[in-house]
């Protein structure tokens, strides 16, 4: 069974860059037909797609976050990462990593999520 | 790209059927059959329950079904059970510029 696990700081200062990593186990990140995605959810609010990356390095970003987001993939470690710069209080959220079907556009496996709080 | 519109809350009694709507536009729900639905219990990650408008992943109860008409997709839960009480989100492919849009979310309450 595929498993995803987010890791990174739970607290980030305003204006700094958030760096999160998602470790994939039970399957290869290099499997064709899937993107590797980040989705976030502010406390008490809805889901927001951040972006996704293919194992070959192709990336797609939410236009509203594109100027601040960088996704990368490390196939040798079977993991992918998110960098989000210029953090503000509005970026406080639970950040999820997930697998996304390239062809049918759904998220079928999710990590448990990690809460990131931005402090001033 | 605006979020897909969902009712904030829907409720029903055990055994009843309820429907959650998801309204988009002619650039997402109306033109692509890539609508998916997710169930999220408090403090948990979302779980895929419907994909490609009406398909259920293996292991998902047959009580969950999906459909689409025009710019609106719908999730129906039949034989409502206490365990169905959760938040539900729709999502749709919306083109290559901004491929993924989520709905605003619906809280389903079992009375």
Write the layout of secondary structure elements.
The complex is a heterodimer of chains A (120) and B (111).
Chain A: E1 3-7, E2 11-13, E3 18-25, E4 34-41, E5 48-53, E6 59-61, E7 69-74, E8 79-84, E9 93-101, E10 107-110, E11 114-119
Parallel strand pairs in A: 2-11
Antiparallel strand pairs in A: 1-3, 3-8, 4-5, 4-9, 5-6, 7-8, 9-10, 9-11
Chain B: E1 9-12, E2 18-23, E3 35-40, E4 47-50, E5 64-69, E6 72-77, E7 86-93, E8 100-102, E9 106-110
Parallel strand pairs in B: 1-9
Antiparallel strand pairs in B: 2-6, 3-4, 3-7, 5-6, 7-8, 7-9
What does this structure look like?
- The complex is a heterodimer of chains A (120) and B (111).
- Chain A has 120 residues and is mainly beta.
- Chain A has no helices and eleven strands.
- In chain A, strand 5 and strand 6 form a beta hairpin.
- Chain A starts with a strand and ends with a strand.
- Chain B is an all-beta fold.
- Chain B contains no helices and nine strands.
- In chain B, strands 1, 3, 4, 7, 8 and 9 form a six-stranded mixed sheet that branches. Chain B has a three-stranded antiparallel sheet with strand order 2-6-5, with no helix packed on it.
- Chain B is globular and about 40 Å long.
- Chain B starts with 8 loop residues before the first strand and ends with a strand.
- The model of chain B has no long low-confidence stretch (mean pLDDT 96).
- The interface between A and B is medium-sized, with 22 and 27 residues.
């Amino acid at each position: 069974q595929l498993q995803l696990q987010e890791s990174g700081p739970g607290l980030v200062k305003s204006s700094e860059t958030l760096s999160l990593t998602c470790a994939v186990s039970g399957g290869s990140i290099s499997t064709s037909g899937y993107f590797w995605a980040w989705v976030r959810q502010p406390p008490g609010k809805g889901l927001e797609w951040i972006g996704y990356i293919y194992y070959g390095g192709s990336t797609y970003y939410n236009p509203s976050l594109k100027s601040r987001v960088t996704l990368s993939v490390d196939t040798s470690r079977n993991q992918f990462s998110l960098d989000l710069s210029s953090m503000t209080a509005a970026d406080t959220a639970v950040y999820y990593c997930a697998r996304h079907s390239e062809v049918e556009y759904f998220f079928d496996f999710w990590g448990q999520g990690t809460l990131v709080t931005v402090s001033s | 790209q605006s979020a897909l519109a969902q009712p904030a809350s829907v409720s029903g009694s055990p055994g009843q059927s309820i429907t959650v709507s998801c309204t988009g536009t002619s650039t997402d729900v109306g033109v692509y059959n890539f609508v998916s639905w997710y169930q999220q219990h408090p403090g948990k990650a979302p779980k895929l329950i419907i994909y490609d408008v009406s398909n259920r992943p293996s292991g998902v109860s047959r009580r969950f079904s999906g459909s689409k008409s025009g710019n609106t997709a719908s999730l129906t839960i039949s034989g409502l059970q206490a365990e169905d009480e959760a938040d539900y989100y729709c999502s749709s492919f919306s083109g290559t510029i901004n491929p993924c849009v989520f709905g605003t979310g619906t809280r389903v309450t079992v009375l």
